[in-house]
Every structure is written in C-alpha cells, then in structure tokens.
C-alpha cells in the first residue's frame, strides 16, 4: 500500500495548509493514540513523549496533538524544544510507548511537520504508519471522561539528554584546550549543544542560539554554514560545528573555515574505527561522492548505497549489520552510539577521532580526494519518463563506458518539481561538466 500522508520522514508541509493544520494534527494524535492503545496489553495506559523545535507554530501543533492523544486515552509527556534524536533517546530510556517530534528539520519557519519514533527509539515501521493512516480515515470520537489521557511536563529532559550525549564520548578523552564554534541554527539544540561541548572541557562560542520562533535555519546552521566558518576565523577557533533546526544534521569546518560535509565526516569516522579493529562496511546514498566508495574499497571495507534519506540509509545498515552510514547533507548514523542520526553525537565521534589521531580534519581526510560533480537540471513535462527516451539512455550508456571505474552517472526525477536531474562524477571537473551536458542535451533534443 502507498502512503497518503507519511513521507520518508513523517508528515511535513506549509503551516495552515493541509495536512499541517490544527484539526488534522488533532485527528493524527487521536489516530496514532488509538493504534498505540490497540496494541497494548495489560491495564497500564500508553504514554507518548512530545518534543518540538523552535518554530512559532510548534505551540499550536503541540496543543492539537495533546488533545488528540488525550481523546484517545493516551497520556502525554511534554519535553518542549528538544533535538529530534533527543526524543528518540528519551522515549527509549523512559520506556514510553512512542515519541513524537514537531519539526520540519532544515526547512524555513513557515513549514512544520510531525514525525514518530517507536518505543525502541527508531522510526515507525511502515506497517504502523499504514495503520495510523487507516485510522485517520475513521471518524474521531473520544473516550469517556474517566479514561482521558493526562499531560505533564518532563522537567529534566535537557539534563538527561546532555548526559547521554556526553556518555558517547570516550572516558579517557576530553576537549580541554579546544576552542569550538557551535552553530545551533536558532533551533532545537540552542540550549543543549553548547553545554555538551563545554562540559567536556571545550571553550565554546555559541552562535545561532537565540531562537525567536521565526529565525530557525535562517542564515545559520548546517544549511548555511558560512556563518560558522566566519565565526571560526573571527574567534581563532580550532573547529566549527553546525547543526540544523532539529539537530540531526552535522557540517563542520576547520580553523581555516574549510567546510567538511557528511561524506567526508563519514569517511573520517570509518577510518577512526578501522584504526582500532576491522570495519565490515558503511552505507551512503545514491548521492554519496564516488571518492568515498573508492577509498573504502581500497582498504577492503564494504560500501553500499541506499536511496536518498536517512530512513533508507538506516534500513541498509540494518540489513548488512553495519554500524556506520550517512549522507553528504550531514545525516550521520552510528548505531553503536544511538538508534538514529544525531548531529551532536556525530560531532563527538569526529572530535574523539581527531583527539585519538592527534591530527587535524584536513590530515585525517587527506586520502579522500573528492570527485568533481556536475549537476544539470532539465525541466520536463509532469510525468516524463527519461528511461523511455532512447537517445538519452544510449548517451548515458556511452558516458558510463567512457568513465569505467573512474566515475559514475546518476539520473533521477525531482520529488518536488518537474525536473530531471543529471549528475556525473568524474576525476576531472571539465569531463564531468561536458558529460552531464551531453546527456541532458539528448533529453532536450
């Protein structure tokens, strides 16, 4: 069955337009509550934890969700502004029935969304999401008054999560002597991330830590890392750490302001693990730079590609039994540290790797020579299927033969616009550009 509301990362959209409206979100809470309650044995009622990022719409959607859960007879714990991975952790640690995050991640403040975590701190299985969608199609009612759910605040949520993050950093190491710029994107980690790094000994310059409900991700954070790089140079810091609005993405920079994306940070983490023992493999996506695949295979490490989206990276990691995976956008997963992608914990893994190696980011990644990528977008009519364009298919095959093991071609349809994206990676930038244009020209012909 196909999903009607759930995408790859929950339900997301423009606030005030379906489905991100208070009436729908209340019905969503009710439907999710009924599904949770139906699968519960014994007399204890289910309890869910609700967290949110710093968007102004979070207040409205939190109240709507709370009402829906209460009407279904489900108790609610409210954590307030918290990173998405914090809700995953706290749901598992407190033995709750589910966790809910109100966030649109790296999107601007006008958007918002709802995502769920299971009792194990993982994304909900497809089957459960389909159950919730089926329940949404049923009329909403209300349990009797004596069965209504209660709501209460989880007052120590921040402290619990700070301690969890610190527990993933090696006991024998600390961050004394390091000056770090930490950009919180005016998002959910604004009152958490600076404390984690400071309590481990670092001197912290926090930026993007003054949310006002409207400035989340605005010129700050992982999607706008120039602010971090500028602050690092201005303060003479050793490193910069940029998170996104819900703190599940990570981009870093060195003392020179040179940026390191998720592909490079994943490679660094794999190399750090390899220094202390065997690493079976790592997972990237269709967009992961080929240099990562080449470098890992040269060292005898397996590499697999998943569809774009941390949900799919996690699926392939579990299928292979591998611990490390990620995306160039900064979603990084270390399954021996957390059940989901976590920007703060990923940064701590990078910092511990640098401490162990006694080297800089540049030195630790010098063997990874990123392949130039050329991307050409071609506007098409809605529903256009490039695989039925014989000239384009033939040109793609010709380019792949020319590249051999020294590059690759990826053609995919945009998920949001009537565009076909043609991406070519090659060892030389001019070759990548010309080959991408050759394929795109065949589509336009």
TrEMBL record:
Binds 1 Mg(2+) ion per subunit. The keyword Aminoacyl-tRNA synthetase does not apply. Its EC number is 5.4.2.10. Pfam families: PGM_PMM_I (PF02878), PGM_PMM_II (PF02879), PGM_PMM_III (PF02880), PGM_PMM_IV (PF00408). Activated by phosphorylation. GO terms for biological process: carbohydrate metabolic process; peptidoglycan biosynthetic process; UDP-N-acetylglucosamine biosynthetic process. This is Phosphoglucosamine mutase. GO terms for cellular component: cytosol. The lineage of its organism: Bacteria, Pseudomonadati, Pseudomonadota, Betaproteobacteria, Burkholderiales. It comes from Duganella fentianensis. GO terms for molecular function: magnesium ion binding; phosphoglucosamine mutase activity; phosphomannomutase activity.
């Amino acid at each position: 069955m196909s999903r009607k509301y759930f995408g790859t990362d929950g339900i997301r959209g423009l606030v005030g337009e379906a489905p991100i409206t208070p009436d729908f979100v209340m019905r969503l809470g009710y439907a999710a509550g009924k599904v949770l309650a139906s699968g519960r044995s014994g007399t204890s009622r289910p309890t869910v934890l609700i967290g949110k990022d710093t968007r102004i719409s979070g207040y409205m959607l939190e109240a709507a969700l709370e009402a829906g859960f209460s009407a279904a007879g489900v108790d609610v714990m409210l954590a307030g502004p918290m990173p998405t991975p914090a809700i995953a952790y706290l749901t598992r640690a407190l033995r709750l029935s589910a966790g809910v995050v109100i966030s649109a991640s790296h999107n601007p403040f006008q958007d918002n969304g709802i995502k769920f975590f299971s009792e194990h701190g993982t994304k909900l299985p497809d089957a459960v999401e389909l159950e919730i969608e089926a329940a949404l199609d049923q009329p909403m009612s209300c349990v009797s008054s004596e069965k209504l759910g209660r709501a209460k605040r989880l007052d120590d949520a921040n402290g619990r999560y700070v301690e969890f993050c610190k527990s993933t950093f090696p006991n024998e190491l600390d961050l004394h002597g390091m000056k770090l710029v930490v950009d919180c994107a005016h998002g959910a980690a604004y009152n958490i991330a600076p404390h984690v790094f400071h309590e481990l000994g670092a001197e912290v310059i926090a930026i993007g830590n003054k949310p006002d409900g409207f400035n989340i991700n605005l010129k700050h954070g992982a999607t706008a890392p120039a602010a971090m790089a500028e602050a690092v140079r201005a303060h003479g810091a050793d490193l910069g750490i940029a998170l996104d609005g819900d703190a599940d993405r990570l981009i870093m920079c060195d003392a020179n302001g040179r940026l390191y994306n998720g592909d490079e940070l994943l490679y660094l983490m794999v190399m750090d693990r390899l220094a202390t023992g065997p690493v079976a493999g790592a997972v990237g996506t269709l967009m992961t730079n080929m240099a990562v695949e080449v470098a890992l295979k040269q060292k005898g490490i397996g590499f697999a590609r998943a569809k774009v989206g941390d949900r799919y990276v996690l699926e392939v990691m579990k299928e292979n039994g591998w611990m490390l995976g990620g995306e160039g956008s900064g979603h990084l997963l270390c399954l021996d540290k957390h059940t989901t992608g976590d920007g703060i914990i990923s940064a701590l893994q990078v910092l511990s790797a640098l401490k162990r190696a006694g080297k800089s980011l540049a030195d630790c990644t010098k063997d990874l020579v990123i392949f130039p990528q050329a991307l050409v977008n071609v506007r098409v009519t809605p529903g256009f299927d490039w695989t039925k364009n014989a000239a384009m298919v033939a040109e793609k095959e010709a380019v792949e033969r020319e590249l051999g093991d020294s590059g690759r071609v990826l053609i995919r349809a945009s998920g949001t616009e009537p565009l076909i994206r043609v991406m070519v990676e090659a060892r030389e930038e001019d070759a990548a550009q010309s080959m991408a244009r050759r394929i795109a020209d065949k589509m336009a012909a």
